[in-house]
Amino acid sequence: MPGKRGWGWWWAQLPLCLLLSLSGPWVPSSLGKPKGHPHMNSIRIDGDITLGGLFPVHGRGSEGKACGELKKEKGIHRLEAMLFALDRINNDPDLLPNITLGARILDTCSRDTHALEQSLTFVQALIEKDGTEVRCGSGGPPIITKPERVVGVIGASGSSVSIMVANILRLFKIPQISYASTAPDLSDNSRYDFFSRVVPSDTYQAQAMVDIVRALKWNYVSTLASEGSYGESGVEAFMQKSREDGCVWAEGGEWPRCPWIQHHGQRQHRPRGSPGWLGSPRMANPWMLLGASSVKCWSLPLSFVINL
């Protein structure tokens, strides 16, 4: 009922409300490949104000393909959350009276270069001519599907994707709010002045890890991070804070973005008993430890393994 909304409802509206302030089930009005837009995996909802959306509905493709398998939790669930928020706002007569929010939602396929290509849709209305001077052979005006103007973008998920997209959106002064990107680089307002996020930076995560190391009185650690700005920046922040606290950083490792665990499980980088890695009688190094998992594809956040 109006006036009795819980914190969960307001939290779901936060990215949309922030975008509006800055810019002054899967059932869209148009789904598929609209005229003039070569995007097969997209959602288009008509409205007075159009918001962009970037979600990793698919994972990274292989063998030359841009997109891979569907990502339910990090992709479809988040997309549905945006659609749900739009539906709630549009059906609330008091929140935005006489204004309907629309959307143009695209699939990043968990790849920064693919997301950049898709994001050109958001700036298309600002760089294309309206075609009023063009006439058909009969003398009549041409039938042109004008691209909708996007006033703000919600996304993306991965930090590397958000960084790539932010570089083009800032040129057109389009606000961008991420729901999951945590790289410390994105806190640089001189480079990403139109970027905001509703999640904390990895700097706090690195400090929390250092606090754990200090609380357990460990002083010799190694790091293992996922490839990309998220893991690499997180490791750098952890190393800096650990040095300030007198913790000895032994060795660092980088985990490919989306490897087959079974393949890397056969790699032998360190002998058994060497300091810095978690060891056991049957597992000589963290590659074997991770290789024992049944999970085929991981995108690891900043991690660390302690020598016990």
Supply the CATH superfamily name of the largest domain.
Answer: Response regulator
Strand content: 15-25%
Q: Structural class, please?
A: alpha/beta
Shape: elongated
CATH class label of the largest domain: Alpha Beta
User: How many strands appear in the DSSP assignment?
Assistant: 12
From the N-terminal CA to the C-terminal CA, the straight-line distance is 55 Å
Enumerate how many helices there are, as a single number.
8
Sequence stretches where pLDDT stays below 50 over 5 or more residues: 22-39, 258-308
Write down the domain tally. Answer: 2
Portion of residues in helices? 25-40%
Organism: Capra hircus
Domain Receptor ligand binding region: 78-247
Pfam family, one: ANF_receptor
Keywords: Cell membrane, G-protein coupled receptor, Glycoprotein, Membrane, Receptor, Signal, Transducer, Transmembrane, Transmembrane helix
Lay out the secondary structure.
Layout: H1 7-22, E1 30-31, E2 42-45, E3 49-55, E4 58-60, E5 67-70, H2 72-90, E6 101-107, H3 112-127, E7 150-154, H4 159-169, E8 176-178, E9 195-197, H5 202-215, E10 220-226, H6 229-244, E11 248-255, H7 261-264, H8 286-291, E12 303-306
Parallel strand pairs: 3-6, 3-7, 7-8, 8-9, 10-11
Antiparallel strand pairs: 1-2, 2-6, 4-5, 10-12
